[in-house]
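User: Quick sanity check before I run a bigger batch. Here is a single chain. Can you write out its predicted 3D structure?
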Amino acid sequence: MIEEAGSDETLMVRVQSDDARAFEVLYDRHYSAVFGLAMRILDDRGLAADVTQEAFTTMWLSRHQFRSDRGRLKWWLLSIVRNRAIDVQRRDRGEVPRSPPPFELTAAPDLTEVEVIAGDERRELAVLVARLPSEQRAVIELAFYTGLTHAEITERLGIPLGTIKGRIRSALERLRLALPHDGTHTTAG
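Assistant: Done. Predicted structure follows.
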């Protein structure tokens, strides 16, 4: 049996060798974050569940494309769900995307251990994002927490597209360097 404490990168190497059990561990580990982001963007449980399933299916089908030297598995997976959720929004243009306040944390009754850990990770990430320079923080919040595309951020902020992309890239690099690389989380404080 796979040891659940293995890092994301170690488990992903096994997934790339067609190890379905390692995939199950990664699914359990990241489900809450993926579903949470889909809910934030779509504000619809059914659509969020569909997008979550599609994101994990894409992860499995694209497993050989993942490269740990380009970033953490979690960020790759969250970018898959974000892009898919935006596609769903575009398909259903009649609905206005929800714009929740960034880092809104809500407690759910009877939290599982996975949900508690996911909540800890969200709080840790919120602290790290809050420490970003304001211009980087703004584009990260609009892109990842509100679900706007780069073009929509450009339109909203009146800043050139290249500048938006550069700020997002710089912010993600800062976050990548600030986060632990062993597949675990730490408590920020």
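The domain at 1-98 is CATH 1.10.1740.10 (Rna Polymerase Sigma Factor; Chain: A).

User: Great, the batch can go ahead then.
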